[in-house]
Amino acid sequence: MSRHVTKTALIGLAVITALSGCATSTAEPKPTTAVAVTDFVTPIEPAWTIDVDLVGKPISQNGYVASYVAAADGALNVVAWDAATGVEVWRDVAAVGATTQGVVVDLGGLKSGEKSFVTYLSPIVGDDSGWSELVIAEIGSGVSTSISNNMVWATQRPAACADDIAVCFTGFLEAADDADRANFRIDPKVGTIVADTDVVMPARARMLSDRLFSTNARSPDGVEELGYSADGAVAWQLPYSDIFAEGYSSDGGWNWDLFRSDEVLVGSGSYFDRARLDIGERVIDLTQTQTVGLDPASGDSLWSLDATSDCPASSIGPELIDDVLPLCRYNSGTMTYALRADGINFETIYADVDIDLLGMDPLSGEVEWTLALGSTSTESGASAIFFETGSVIRAVNVAGAVSLVNALTGDVTDLPDGAIFACGQHRDGFEALQHSSGDVVAYGAGHDGFPCTSDLAAIEGTAYSPGALRMGGLETGENTFVIGGASGLSSYTLLD
Description:
- The chain is an all-beta fold.
- It is about 0% helix and about 45% strand.
- The protein has helices at about 240-245, 465-470; strands spanning about 50, 55-60, 65-70, 75-80, 90-95, 110, 115-125, 130-140, 150-160, 165-175, 180-185, 195, 205-210, 210-215, 225-230, 235-240, 250-260, 265-270, 280-285, 290-295, 300-305, 310, 325-340, 345-360, 365-375, 385, 395-400, 400-405, 410-415, 420-425, 430-435, 440-445, 445-450, 475, 480-485, 490-495.
- The strands form nine sheets. The chain has a seven-stranded antiparallel β-sheet with strand order 6-7-8-9-10-11-12, with no helix packed on it. Strands 19, 22, 23, 24 and 25 form a five-stranded antiparallel β-sheet that branches.
- The longest helix is centred in the last third of the chain and has 7 residues, at about 465-470.
């Protein structure tokens, strides 16, 4: 794999919209000093750095850090390190499986009882058929759970189940390869792969997030439907165009990880132009997206917002949401992506993009505040480099000037002099054989982080500010973070 970093357009890109049935008058946020307490100036040097070529996002459990990496021989490996020292504890060869190439190759993790595990697929030596072994290994030792009949063809990589009790994946078992694709689960304490009777879906359906799926039927011969599984049954299954607009499809991307509760499921979808499939490129109208709020029990639409989606300025972890969900509204703009000359990776071109940052109530869909970002914003995607958004306080280009913005309130603060931020840049895809087609393709490999200025320019060295570490780091312990970048994986400890 190449270490060159470049923005890669992914099939699973989630562009989001919804019906404008709840238009409201919104307040414009006022500049404030409320966010000025975060330290974006003091440089913190790493406690340790590992020279490693990361693939996907690292995970942290029980005092260890683990991630996929691209090995020197081009193979995909799983590696675990001691979070305190950076010492490598173990590694194993891994496989990408039969997942859609746009889905980022992120390592799955699970806590079961007193133990913490990573789960992945491991190739069979000398066998290029595409079948692989399902592995569940203790993160601290690499010792694998003994699994009977563990040969699988996974169309969705193994990860923690919706109930966080077991590992789940979608695909086929070699022991019953003539059966339809299905969902499976395995409890590490038991070691037997069984049908997942908690989450069920029709044959050949695509899992979108935990319990949500889309069916495989497409026009003109059929109708794609969105469905939800609960208590071992399909709770509801509705035409995709009844939830989103006509012509929308999960083939155009989705994001059902925006917000969920017992009252509402919030997700996004976008229009998909099937005519573009035959010419090697696709032009996406960024305004043809929708964000919707659905009743989990019935699938009924509770609200929708046209031309809205997540974007770098609005992206936020569910654990950080407090009554307000940030979104971006695209007033205009297109994104064109096509295969580059290498025939593997994609290139993207953005044009005429104009964006507003919104704060909305995920239960009602009411827009609480609006912040105009404008056409020169870094959130337009026109730049291959972006600010990280792992904290509520983040750097955002507001109408041509970078400021500190609270993504939950819309409050804006001037930048301090000498601010150090965390930036990201998408990696080239991880190149591997796609067994379903026989072609070598580039799988989503995530992005590299690096310290940067407010102009998105890289800062020489590896020192981050405390605020930047919260923006872009993975917390491995109290006031301790790791960040993966082109220089490898580094660990930092804050002084406060």
